[in-house]
Amino acid sequence: MSRRLALNTAGFVVAALVVAVLPRFISSYHALEWANVGIYFVALLGLNVLTGYSGQVSLGHGAFMAIGGYTSAILIAHHGVHDVWTIPLAGLVAGGAGLAFGLPALRLTGLYLALATFAVAVAFPALARKFERFTGGNAGLVLTLHTNDWLYYLSWSIAGAGLLLGWLVLATPIGRSFRALRDSEVAAISSGISPALYKTLAFGISSFYAGIAGSLVAISTAYVNPQTFPITLSLFLVVGLAVGGLGSLPGSVVGAILIQFLPTYAAHVSKQAPQVIEGAILVGVMLLLPGGAAGLFRLVQSSRQP
Amino acid sequence: MAALLEVENVSRRFGGIVALDGVSLDAGENEIVGLIGPNGAGKTTLFNVVTRLYRPDSGALRFAGRSLLRTPAHRIVRRGIARTFQNVELFDTMTVRENVRVGGRYGDEALEVVGLAPLAGRLAASLPHDTRKRVELARALASRPRIVLLDEPAGGLDHEEVERLATLIRRLRTELELAVLVVEHHMNLVMGVSDRVHVLSFGRRIASGTPAEVRNDPAVIEAYLGSAA
Q1: With an 8 Å Cβ cutoff, are B89 and A186 in contact?
Q2: What is chain B's alpha carbon radius of gyration, rounded to the nearest angstrom?
Q3: Domain range holding B202?
Q4: ipTM of this complex > 0.90?
Q5: In terms of domains, do B73 and B155 share one?
Q6: One domain for residues B65 and B173
Q7: For A179, which of B72, B93, B139 is closest by C-beta distance?
Q8: Which residues contact B118 (CB under 8 A, 6 or more apart)?
Q9: Distance of alpha carbon B195 from its chain centroid, rounded?
């Protein structure tokens, strides 16, 4: 136990040092790309708490990111709040939305839950257009510009804090209850764990992370509109999670790198059909990493049984 | 002997199938009670009803004199009822120690009782079948319950392991002062450890009594021979 803690601490310190000095060796443009990796990492940490640890599949996490992104954008553009202060608020609003969604979602398991969350992601852009007064509709909201290095350090500071917070939460009896429900729901219930409480809580925590990631997206692109959080974002998050590894927080970095760079490199190979190449590469990666992909599949399968 | 667990006239159907049809039975404080019957008799369903995983369609459930029907499934263990499962339900990604700690505050003590303390750091998924069954029992004991419900604890065990299980079940009563309700197909085990035995067949209780009484009950003999023929 203590050796594992020492290893994790050492790994974290080394990774933090690498992250801290990286901007000295890369261009400002690449710093922005790596800032995005940090943002996806935050979102994947949250999705991992939900899917990797508590065993609930969400295909709609982009929607919770969108809630966070719009919370920040509205506070910054309409109310003149300093953008950094909107980050925790965005997390709280999205986390509240996650709790509210988690309650009715208790009646759904496996594929049905995945479909319900997907519906939320599909519906969100239309909602954003409808409430044009707040969201700016299709025109969106324009925010403050920042330097790429500043964005890089902002997103990675939050990613580091998010990783530590995730480790802390999962080390408590709360985290143990999540894993117990995932491994055997009947045994968890018969051991005194309330599935309603912990499944909803997992949704809340997970959406809190998504909201913070969404807020960072808004701040780093200095602009949000309904297309900032497309449906494909939700799907890429699930693929990133599977590739990074279910139930491994640091592994999510790999998934975050994949989400950020795969589209770029796919575009290098062929400008005509980057989506096709992207899909082919995704399938290839998932075949080569059966542990990650199969893990998710097994989860969907096993959580279908009550 | 004062009844600790009372099941009164409980029925439960699934669609057109009547899994439990007006079943009444009881288990006393510090008593070992066997629950037997042919496959599909409703034994596991009864466990699931008592632990509130299933809602009974009708009937009453009382524990220590108070109804269980308003206690949700996840509070049952706090009332003093713990259980194991027919198809061992462990938390496979956790160590043995983590498994029993989910079960309750007295996990380490429970590991001592079943003799698994040396394996506390092992991953549950890596253990052989009989050890997994003992981990599950330890997890049930970790809450210091007043009764444990054991669903086919001898399933898949060899002769020697069954002998050890019988000793362990008797120790639960003498050392931990527990009541035990045990569903089992292994007749020697049930008849050897139980004070009383209830017999279910097709969702009904067809006999109750000491092992000797039940063994010679014509209705029981018919239920078993009938199902075997």
Answers
A1: yes
A2: 17
A3: 3-80+149-228
A4: yes
A5: yes
A6: yes
A7: B93
A8: none
A9: 15
State both tokens at A156. Answer: 């990675």
| Residue B13 identity | R
Domains for chain A: give ranges and CATH numbers.
26-302 (1.10.3470)
Count the domains in chain B. 2
| DSSP state string for B156-207 | T--HHHHHHHHHHHHHHHHHH--EEEEE-S-HHHHHHH-SEEEEEETTEEEE
DSSP A75: H
Out of B53, B82, B90, whose CB is closest to A184? B90
> Could you give the C-alpha distances from A41 to A45, A219, B2, B184, in angstroms and in order?
6, 16, 59, 50
pTM for this prediction: 0.88
| pLDDT tens digits, B46-88 | 999 999 999 999 999 999 999 999 999 999 999 999 999 999 9
Q: What is the rounded radius of gyration, in angstroms, for the C-alpha atoms of chain A?
A: 19
Low-confidence winner among A20-29, A173-182, B179-188 (lowest mean pLDDT): A20-29
Same domain? B116 vs B53: no
Q: Give the C-alpha separation, B225 to B221, whole Å.
A: 6
How are beta strands B196-201 and B179-183 bridged, if at all?
unpaired
Q: What is the mean pLDDT of residues A39-63?
A: 93
| Half-sphere exposure of residue A138: CA atoms within 13 angstroms, side-chain side | 0
The residues on A that touch B, with CB distances below 8 Å, are 176-177, 179-180, 182-184, 186-195, 247
Task: Give B99-153 pLDDT, tens digit per residue.
Answer: 999 999 999 999 999 999 999 999 999 999 999 999 999 999 999 999 999 999 9
